[in-house]
Structure of Alpha/beta hydrolase:
Amino acid sequence: MLDADARAVLDAQAAMGRPPLDSLPVEIAKSGFLETCPLLQGPREAVSAVQDITIAGSGGPLPLRVYRGQGCAVEQAPALVFFHGGGWVLGNLESHDTICRWIANDLAGVVLAVDYRLAPEHPFPAAIEDAAAAVRHAHQNARHLGIDPARLAVGGDSAGGNIAAVMALMARDGALPPIAFQMLLYPVTDVSGDQDSYRHCAEGFGLTTAAMRWFHGHYLGKTGRPEDWRISPLRAADVSGLAPAFVLTAGYDPLHDEALAYAHRLGDADVPLLLDENPGQIHGFISMDLFIAAARPAVTRATDFWREVEAASAV
């Protein structure tokens, strides 16, 4: 059954009468998303410190936002490199500021949010290149950032979860420094879009199948291929040896089945895993905390599992 809070959000969105996302010019969609985010999010939690920095990316200067949570140690703190959702087309540091603050506070650690290049102006592999640059920067500058390079994690929601999953695969294969944990919140894992949930949740639950295909097209551009594991990590030949993972799903979400399939592959490969199923929820519910009470606790479950993983590895 659909969660009552989620239903209230959907009813309010329907009452606004906005045109479908996939019918809008890209620039209108981008600005509309940024205008809507604050309307769904509550007051921002205070953290110990926030700093905007810029690092060198393969496509030029790459903005990052560094959060230090309440109680964060001066050095050797855990750290998570976070990639925001928005279908690789929408979003920025502001749209996901709330989530990053929650993670930083729950960890008593550091979150580095990445303002990676967006499609369609910068299609695949621009986002992957920027994400990799951010992970390398965090590892190489661990001492300056006050973080423990052995406790470096990646995470993100939706398209950001897709990017995080790709980073974990790259790290496993030696293309990036080691990753200790991956936090995948309703991630995109297969852009073929042929899972049953693309049909069962095609319309009426916020994110639509048509919108996802719109996102896929912009991200793939002229050269991206759905079978490429850097686009569809579910298609990776081997997922063994990956960092422990928290995978969150929402029941009324076109992405439900691909996120679930990726979690099952990780579990079958003996990757330490917590599959966090939210059968009554819609895609993006963690970014709707002003109305959906389940939003904040979901992040705490993710960080709690990371702590459990660390405790188990220390035994």
Notes: Residues 5 and 110 are 31 Å apart (CA to CA). The chain has a mean pLDDT of 97.
